[in-house]
């Protein structure tokens, strides 16, 4: 048994024992100590991910939580962390405020990454599902679902499309996660869907500036299972972000020209965040390269 398997085994055993008491999804295989000790690290990771994906937002044992945090931190570090100033994060040729990166959004170090959430705001519950919501919750750790559940209890209603919420990033390299619910277009977006997608981008940017964030990484909101066509969604994303940045720059310029002396301890002038569009597939990368004026021969 390798080191990763040794670290995963007690984490999975705890989750299996917990599930036996709480009920809910079970893997349909033996999870006793002998069975777990015979599994590969890959099998144990798949089992760990499935259990946390389907875990109710309840407080775990503090010792287990400490071990989970250490494991996720090390896994992400081993896979490699990208900073927004790395060479692979390419500035737009036509607008230096915008950048493009192709990679795993859970591996980028920024002030915030954007999660394409659903109206429950509790993450994806499908075991091992390869959506961004699932990945972000998996690698952030179970604390993220706990915090989202707290926010939603206080709100008392499902999250409406076009709005956004902010949480810590927990074990992610990103300091925060901004969660937004995009419209469900099912391949044929209406004018309302277009307005809601625009609102999602604006809401995320508004939260970023409210919290003084200097960088935000957008996923391709609504283009997955929500079915918004990739080309049109990207056009809305770039157009909306540019317009928001332009308006914000005008506000900052007016503040600078007000004639009031600056107070470095109480500077209320918001900062303009650097915006990175993160894509995962080749088709989305091609679309964003065209929109941002980035030649196709630059490696991401």
UniProtKB/TrEMBL annotation:
Chain coiled-coil ranges: none
SUPFAM superfamilies from the UniProt entry: Macro domain-like
Superkingdom as given in the UniProt entry: Bacteria
Domain Macro: 85-296
Region (Disordered): 250-274
InterPro entries, A to Z: Macro_dom, Macro_dom-like
Classification via CDD domains: Macro_OAADPr_deacetylase (cd02908)
Gene3D superfamilies named in the record: Leucine Aminopeptidase, subunit E, domain 1
NCBIfam families: PRK04143.1
Name of the protein: Appr-1-p processing protein
